[in-house]
Amino acid sequence: MIDFTNKKVIEYPYPITIVEECFDDKTLGKLIEEYPDVSGEQTVMGGRKNLKAGEWLSEYPTWKQFYDYLNDESLFQSMINDHSEELEKWDSVITNRNSLDTDCFLYLDIATATDGYYREIHRDTDKRIWNFLIFLNDKDWEGGDFLIHSSDKMSMYPRQIFDTSMFDLPVEKVIEAKKNRGVFFLSVPNSYHSVSVQSKTNTPRNFLYGSYSYRGGDVFNKRSK
Q1: Fewest C-beta in 10 Å: which of 47, 88, 145, 171?
Q2: In which domain, by residue range, is 49 found?
Protein backbone atom coordinates (compact mmCIF):
# COMPACT_ATOMS: atom_id res chain seq x y z
CA MET A 1 0.00 0.00 0.00
CA ILE A 2 2.89 2.39 0.64
CA ASP A 3 4.66 3.49 -2.51
CA PHE A 4 8.33 3.29 -1.52
CA THR A 5 9.39 4.23 -5.05
CA ASN A 6 8.89 7.85 -3.94
CA LYS A 7 11.44 7.54 -1.16
CA LYS A 8 14.38 9.74 -0.26
CA VAL A 9 17.00 8.07 1.95
CA ILE A 10 18.98 10.10 4.50
CA GLU A 11 21.94 8.32 6.10
CA TYR A 12 22.95 11.00 8.63
CA PRO A 13 22.57 11.29 11.56
CA TYR A 14 20.84 7.89 11.39
CA PRO A 15 18.93 6.00 8.69
CA ILE A 16 15.79 7.93 7.75
CA THR A 17 13.52 7.38 4.76
CA ILE A 18 11.08 10.08 3.67
CA VAL A 19 8.28 9.00 1.35
CA GLU A 20 6.18 11.53 -0.51
CA GLU A 21 2.71 10.41 -1.62
CA CYS A 22 2.69 7.29 0.53
CA PHE A 23 -0.77 6.24 -0.60
CA ASP A 24 -2.62 6.49 -3.88
CA ASP A 25 -5.39 9.09 -3.89
CA LYS A 26 -8.22 6.61 -3.43
CA THR A 27 -6.61 4.88 -0.43
CA LEU A 28 -5.67 8.18 1.20
CA GLY A 29 -9.20 9.49 0.74
CA LYS A 30 -10.64 6.39 2.39
CA LEU A 31 -8.21 6.56 5.32
CA ILE A 32 -9.16 10.19 5.93
CA GLU A 33 -12.88 9.46 5.50
CA GLU A 34 -12.65 6.58 7.99
CA TYR A 35 -10.40 8.45 10.44
CA PRO A 36 -11.65 7.44 13.92
CA ASP A 37 -12.79 10.00 16.48
CA VAL A 38 -10.07 10.11 19.16
CA SER A 39 -11.43 13.11 21.08
CA GLY A 40 -12.55 10.94 23.97
CA GLU A 41 -9.16 9.28 24.39
CA GLN A 42 -6.72 10.11 27.19
CA THR A 43 -4.14 12.82 26.45
CA VAL A 44 -0.61 11.34 26.39
CA MET A 45 2.96 12.00 25.28
CA GLY A 46 3.18 15.76 25.44
CA GLY A 47 -0.42 16.52 24.54
CA ARG A 48 -1.72 14.22 21.83
CA LYS A 49 -4.65 11.82 21.84
CA ASN A 50 -3.99 8.27 20.65
CA LEU A 51 -6.13 5.38 19.60
CA LYS A 52 -4.19 2.13 19.53
CA ALA A 53 -5.01 -0.32 16.77
CA GLY A 54 -7.39 -2.95 18.09
CA GLU A 55 -10.93 -4.23 17.75
CA TRP A 56 -12.14 -0.93 16.26
CA LEU A 57 -10.27 -1.81 13.04
CA SER A 58 -13.09 -4.15 12.04
CA GLU A 59 -15.36 -1.10 11.66
CA TYR A 60 -12.96 0.72 9.34
CA PRO A 61 -12.10 -1.51 6.35
CA THR A 62 -9.36 0.65 4.84
CA TRP A 63 -7.54 1.00 8.16
CA LYS A 64 -7.88 -2.77 8.64
CA GLN A 65 -6.39 -3.32 5.18
CA PHE A 66 -3.51 -1.00 6.01
CA TYR A 67 -2.88 -2.73 9.34
CA ASP A 68 -2.81 -6.13 7.61
CA TYR A 69 -0.40 -4.76 5.01
CA LEU A 70 2.00 -3.62 7.74
CA ASN A 71 1.55 -6.80 9.75
CA ASP A 72 2.98 -8.87 6.92
CA GLU A 73 6.17 -10.87 7.20
CA SER A 74 7.47 -9.86 3.77
CA LEU A 75 7.48 -6.15 4.66
CA PHE A 76 9.13 -6.87 8.01
CA GLN A 77 11.88 -8.94 6.37
CA SER A 78 12.38 -6.28 3.70
CA MET A 79 12.98 -3.72 6.45
CA ILE A 80 15.58 -5.97 8.10
CA ASN A 81 17.38 -6.55 4.80
CA ASP A 82 17.44 -2.84 3.99
CA HIS A 83 19.05 -2.03 7.35
CA SER A 84 21.23 -5.08 7.92
CA GLU A 85 24.51 -3.13 8.05
CA GLU A 86 23.19 -0.61 10.55
CA LEU A 87 21.68 -3.35 12.71
CA GLU A 88 25.04 -5.12 12.73
CA LYS A 89 26.87 -1.88 13.53
CA TRP A 90 24.91 -1.56 16.79
CA ASP A 91 25.15 -5.29 17.55
CA SER A 92 21.42 -5.82 17.19
CA VAL A 93 19.69 -9.01 18.24
CA ILE A 94 17.43 -8.60 15.19
CA THR A 95 18.28 -10.62 12.08
CA ASN A 96 16.26 -12.29 9.33
CA ARG A 97 15.73 -15.18 11.75
CA ASN A 98 13.31 -12.98 13.71
CA SER A 99 9.67 -12.85 12.72
CA LEU A 100 6.36 -11.10 13.39
CA ASP A 101 4.96 -14.58 13.90
CA THR A 102 7.28 -15.38 16.80
CA ASP A 103 9.21 -12.70 18.70
CA CYS A 104 8.37 -9.35 17.09
CA PHE A 105 5.15 -7.39 16.63
CA LEU A 106 3.52 -4.42 14.93
CA TYR A 107 2.40 -1.41 16.97
CA LEU A 108 0.11 1.21 15.42
CA ASP A 109 -1.48 4.38 16.83
CA ILE A 110 -3.92 6.83 15.27
CA ALA A 111 -3.19 10.26 16.75
CA THR A 112 -4.45 13.85 16.86
CA ALA A 113 -2.56 16.84 18.28
CA THR A 114 -3.64 20.42 18.96
CA ASP A 115 -2.24 23.44 20.82
CA GLY A 116 0.47 22.63 23.35
CA TYR A 117 1.58 19.37 21.82
CA TYR A 118 5.33 18.78 21.82
CA ARG A 119 7.87 16.03 22.38
CA GLU A 120 11.16 16.39 24.21
CA ILE A 121 14.35 15.21 22.53
CA HIS A 122 14.29 11.44 22.83
CA ARG A 123 14.83 8.10 21.18
CA ASP A 124 12.09 5.51 21.30
CA THR A 125 11.93 2.68 23.83
CA ASP A 126 14.55 -0.07 23.73
CA LYS A 127 12.15 -2.62 22.20
CA ARG A 128 11.53 -0.53 19.06
CA ILE A 129 13.21 -1.67 15.83
CA TRP A 130 11.78 0.55 13.08
CA ASN A 131 9.47 3.53 13.54
CA PHE A 132 7.28 5.52 11.19
CA LEU A 133 5.01 8.56 11.05
CA ILE A 134 2.59 9.37 8.25
CA PHE A 135 0.88 12.77 8.18
CA LEU A 136 -2.72 12.87 7.01
CA ASN A 137 -3.16 16.63 6.59
CA ASP A 138 -1.11 19.66 5.65
CA LYS A 139 0.27 21.98 8.30
CA ASP A 140 -2.40 24.39 9.55
CA TRP A 141 -0.73 25.48 12.78
CA GLU A 142 2.55 26.92 14.01
CA GLY A 143 5.33 24.68 15.36
CA GLY A 144 4.55 21.01 15.61
CA ASP A 145 7.55 20.23 13.39
CA PHE A 146 9.30 16.86 13.51
CA LEU A 147 12.96 17.54 14.29
CA ILE A 148 15.90 15.23 13.62
CA HIS A 149 18.88 15.67 15.98
CA SER A 150 22.51 14.64 15.65
CA SER A 151 24.52 13.44 18.65
CA ASP A 152 28.13 13.40 17.44
CA LYS A 153 29.53 14.81 20.70
CA MET A 154 27.76 12.27 22.88
CA SER A 155 29.17 8.91 23.92
CA MET A 156 26.18 7.60 25.89
CA TYR A 157 22.58 7.77 24.73
CA PRO A 158 19.93 8.33 27.41
CA ARG A 159 16.39 7.74 26.20
CA GLN A 160 14.98 11.18 27.01
CA ILE A 161 16.64 14.57 27.24
CA PHE A 162 14.71 17.29 29.04
CA ASP A 163 17.65 19.52 30.02
CA THR A 164 19.20 20.47 26.69
CA SER A 165 21.85 22.63 28.38
CA MET A 166 23.66 19.42 29.38
CA PHE A 167 23.86 17.98 25.86
CA ASP A 168 24.81 19.14 22.39
CA LEU A 169 22.11 17.85 20.01
CA PRO A 170 21.87 20.15 16.98
CA VAL A 171 18.82 20.02 14.74
CA GLU A 172 19.95 18.43 11.47
CA LYS A 173 16.63 18.40 9.67
CA VAL A 174 13.16 19.87 10.11
CA ILE A 175 10.33 17.80 8.66
CA GLU A 176 7.02 19.62 8.41
CA ALA A 177 3.70 17.87 8.25
CA LYS A 178 2.57 17.38 4.67
CA LYS A 179 -0.47 15.41 3.64
CA ASN A 180 0.55 11.88 2.61
CA ARG A 181 4.20 12.30 3.68
CA GLY A 182 5.79 9.46 5.63
CA VAL A 183 8.90 9.41 7.80
CA PHE A 184 10.46 6.00 8.50
CA PHE A 185 13.57 5.45 10.61
CA LEU A 186 15.55 2.70 12.26
CA SER A 187 15.30 3.04 16.04
CA VAL A 188 19.05 2.90 16.66
CA PRO A 189 20.49 4.10 20.00
CA ASN A 190 21.25 7.59 18.64
CA SER A 191 17.98 8.11 16.72
CA TYR A 192 17.14 11.33 18.55
CA HIS A 193 14.10 13.31 17.46
CA SER A 194 11.63 15.77 18.93
CA VAL A 195 8.53 17.80 18.09
CA SER A 196 8.49 21.58 18.53
CA VAL A 197 5.59 23.12 20.46
CA GLN A 198 2.39 23.29 18.42
CA SER A 199 0.31 26.48 18.64
CA LYS A 200 -2.32 28.53 16.79
CA THR A 201 -3.96 25.36 15.57
CA ASN A 202 -6.72 25.84 13.01
CA THR A 203 -6.92 22.19 12.03
CA PRO A 204 -5.65 19.41 14.33
CA ARG A 205 -2.45 17.60 13.34
CA ASN A 206 -3.71 14.15 12.31
CA PHE A 207 -1.12 11.46 11.87
CA LEU A 208 -0.36 7.83 12.52
CA TYR A 209 2.58 6.43 14.45
CA GLY A 210 3.76 2.87 14.16
CA SER A 211 6.69 0.58 14.77
CA TYR A 212 8.02 -2.92 14.61
CA SER A 213 9.07 -3.97 18.09
CA TYR A 214 10.84 -6.88 19.79
CA ARG A 215 9.03 -8.90 22.44
CA GLY A 216 12.32 -9.90 24.07
CA GLY A 217 13.24 -6.39 25.24
CA ASP A 218 16.30 -4.46 24.16
CA VAL A 219 16.97 -4.60 20.43
CA PHE A 220 20.61 -3.46 20.62
CA ASN A 221 23.48 -4.87 22.65
CA LYS A 222 25.54 -1.76 21.98
CA ARG A 223 24.17 1.53 23.31
CA SER A 224 27.29 3.69 23.47
CA LYS A 225 30.09 4.71 21.10
Answers
A1: 88
A2: 4-214
